[in-house]
Design brief:
Largest sheet: 5 strands, mixed
Distance between the termini: 57 Å
Order of helices and strands: EEEHEHHEHHH
Helix content: 25-40%
Number of helices: 6
CATH class: Alpha Beta
CATH topology: Nucleotidyltransferase, domain 5
CATH architecture: 2-Layer Sandwich
CATH superfamily: Ribonuclease H-like superfamily/Ribonuclease H
Radius of gyration: 17 Å
């Protein structure tokens, strides 16, 4: 396949490859744990399989409540969908800290400047810190196994509609064991 210049249809590795020209921010969470809503948001990107290809999903997740504050999907890995999700998250609330990996989307001045303008502290995982984003990784596993794999969406429109329902249910309907069987929305908004 290499000799013929062809490759499989799955996304390649290193979706979050670092851009060496972008500033890397220090990791702020060594002795910090999410202790209230809007204290720490985590952000990450994953890929979602569809019948005819792949879509990319970004989400801003409140670590204390597991509330998905905002999300976006796109067919490319251009930064626009990440910026759109960030703006939607900040329209809900300004967190104290946003934690991400050192991928080029999150180190981009387009992303970091919005956070800095809103006085959000930026934290970035370093090598060997994969477990720091465990809440978002668990979210990705749930999204894929509870929604994507069983629905096998055929179009981006179907995927968006399915994810809209899924995240609504995840936030407002389904109780979470780690939250004392309250919904993420009840914990995030301080009800219940």
């Amino acid at each position: 396949m290499r000799d013929m210049g062809i490759s499989g249809i799955s996304p390649g590795p290193n979706l979050s490859k670092r851009d060496r020209q972008h500033k890397i921010y220090p990791y702020l969470l060594k002795n910090e744990h999410a202790s209230r809503p809007n204290h720490i948001f985590g952000v990450d990107i994953t890929y979602l399989r569809m019948k005819g290809g792949w879509m990319y999903l970004v989400a801003y997740l409140d670590w204390y409540s597991r509330f998905v504050v905002s999300w976006e999907v796109d067919q490319t890995l251009e930064i626009g969908f990440v910026i759109e999700a960030l703006k939607k998250a900040l329209a809900v609330c300004i967190p104290e800290i946003v934690n991400s990996d050192q991928g080029s989307h999150f180190t981009s001045p387009r992303h970091t400047s919005i956070l800095l303008e809103n006085k959000v502290r930026i934290s970035m995982d370093g090598r060997g810190r994969a477990m720091d984003n465990i809440f978002t990784e668990r979210l990705w596993r749930s999204v894929k196994y509870e929604n994507i794999y069983i629905n096998d969406y055929g179009t981006p429109k179907e995927l968006r509609a399915g994810l809209t329902k899924y995240f609504n249910d995840k936030n407002y309907v389904i109780p979470h064991q780690a939250l004392g069987y309250r919904t993420p929305a009840e914990v995030y908004y301080g009800k219940g």
